[in-house]
Structure formats: structure tokens, C-alpha cells
């Protein structure tokens, strides 16, 4: 049950982080408001921070916040400040650790697809390679929340459609700037990936993230449509604009071994939406919890934690971006099922779960301020560097 802002929110929020009490709601920018309220959850009281964004307002837009590379992380406040956002929240789950693969670098790359300013950054890792809680039945790593070029929010599913054309023939491209590739496949890495090692891409299996790294790998570098170098091991370092690195494992590696320096290779890729015919201006991964006013079946109603969720109402014209507080008094948070119920009580027709726990963070920038303020208490006591987020922007 959502309750009015009351006694739980005052002194309990003081001290640990710069969270201010905003009872009735505060205008952040034209079409953007921020408020706090309490939610009575099963594990105890939760405290919510909510941004309401009117996409029908021509002065407002939302977009992807990211550090300039797929395989990189930084805090939400730095992401928002560097992009000039008036508000922001953390985004997708990401490759946070590699304890099961000693010596392999955790890339920091996100799990699901990502689109920024209409440009595809990456595709989704195999479902068995994801980080985060168990997915609701019928969902996958390809699910996204996005806003189209028509300025309407949607839930959708984005799939990679790609091919590699070689002198030996053509074969499917199964990955794009992903920290994990499907078994027996070939994936492409571009300048958008960054400089992180590509070794993680050949570790794990389609069903088990902790499975060993493949012993059968190959890498091919392509510049101006020609193979310029090959290697038995995935490498690292910046990929120049216009260059593409193909990484293969198992059968994919065997296909790449047929290539020689100087061979002509054409790599094509695009993202195909399952439902929307409108191009996406931005899209981010996570998983749906509410669709057409109904909670998805099989949502977790046991595990309670701090959460981040984005939803919409009014046919996708109004966004609701909610982050729970991680202060000690509220750290028990809520379950995914309670999260869906809370968003529905706020009027959302559809809602989408983002990364939570120590990643949950919401920031806003006051009028005249040069930097954003962190509004919730991160549950780990400090901001966690994250792969991406949702930014809210205001223009005159």
C-alpha cells in the first residue's frame, strides 16, 4: 500500500547521504517532478523516490546514460552531470564480477540490448549468462524498455539480426559488443565496446554463467572490409572507428580460422523489434513486471530488496521512474511482485525492473545548480559505478 509522505521519511533519511524531504512534489524542470513517499511492504516500510516525466512536453526528453563505452562503468551522478541531465536513475544489470573465471576481467558491460541517440550500442547476452535475479517466466535478456522517435515509451524485445560474408560463404552473426557469446557462435566488437578485454566473451555456457572458458577460440580483425590480423586468443585495447573485431568460440572459431589476412569480409548487423514499427531513440535492458495493467505471472513474491523500476501510463506519454531508498530503516525494500503492485497503484499500465540493491540510485539537479544531488541513500553506503542508466533532459 502506498501511503502519503509522513513520519517515516523525515529524520530517518538524514545523515547518510544527501537525501532531502520533498513532501508534495518538486518541479525539477518543465514536465519533470520529483517526490518521496512511503510504501508498506511485507518486509517492513519502504521509502520511494519518484520522478514523473511528461514526454508530451516538447521541452523534455529521456535518453541512455552510459560512460561512452559499453565495457565501462561510472556512477549515476557522473553520468548525469557529464550528459547535462536534470535527473537520472541507474539502469540495466551488468557484468560486475568474474570470480568463477580467475584471471578474466569483469567488463562492466550491461546484460541486455542498448540504444543511445538512435544508435545501437549492443545486443543481449544469452539468458543463462545474465546477472540479476531470476527472470519471470516468458521473459528474456532481449526484453527492453524504450522510447521511440515518436516520444512514446514502450516495452519490447530487441533481437540481433546479422551476418558475416566471407570468401567461403556467409554465416550468422550472433553477438554485438556483448560480454558473453552463445556457444559455437561468432560475435562482433566495434569501437563502441571500449578497450576492455574480449576474453570474457568466450567464457561460460548458454545455461551456466560460471561454466569454464572455451578452449577453442579465434579472433579476426577487419579494417576497410579486409582481414588485417588474426589471433587464437581474444584480445583487448581500443578498436578504431570503422574497424570490427570478430570473436568466435567452438564452431564459430572454426569458421573464422578459414580466413586469411587480406580476405574480403563484410559484417552486417541490425536490431529487430518484436512489436514496435517505430525506431527507438533509446532502449535499455532489464525485465518487464507489469504489462497492460496486469502483473506478469510468476513474479517473485519472496525476495525483498532495494529496487529500481521504470513504468509508463497515458499510452506511453508519461513516465514513472522509481528508486527505493537504501537507508538502514528501509533497506528491506520490497519483492518484485510488490514492485509491480506499487507501480500499478501509481497508475502505470506497464513497468520494467532495472538493477537494484547497491546499484539503485536516483539523482536530480536543482535550478541553478552545477551538479546533481543523490536523492536516495545507496544501500552500500556509497554510489556504485554502473554500466548505464536513464537520463532526463530539459531544453528551452
The overall strand count is 26
Helix- and strand-based class?
mainly beta
Low-confidence stretches: 1-22
Number of helices: 3
Distance from first to last alpha carbon:
38 Å
> What is the C-alpha radius of gyration, as a whole number of Å?
21 Å
Helix and strand run: EEEEEHEEEEEEEEEEEHEEEEEEHEEEE
Major sheet details: 9 strands, antiparallel
Bin the strand percentage: 35-45%
Helical fraction equals under 10%
Please state the average pLDDT score: 93
Shape: globular
Structural topology:
Layout: E1 2-3, E2 26-29, E3 32-41, E4 44-54, E5 60-65, H1 76-83, E6 87-90, E7 114-116, E8 119-122, E9 143-148, E10 153-166, E11 169-172, E12 175-176, E13 186-189, E14 217-223, E15 226-231, E16 243-249, H2 251-256, E17 266-273, E18 280-285, E19 287-291, E20 294-295, E21 308-313, E22 318-324, H3 336-345, E23 350-354, E24 362-364, E25 373-374, E26 389-394
Parallel strand pairs: 12-13
Antiparallel strand pairs: 1-3, 2-3, 3-4, 4-22, 5-26, 6-24, 6-26, 7-8, 9-10, 9-18, 10-11, 10-17, 13-16, 14-15, 14-16, 19-20, 19-23, 21-22, 21-23, 24-25
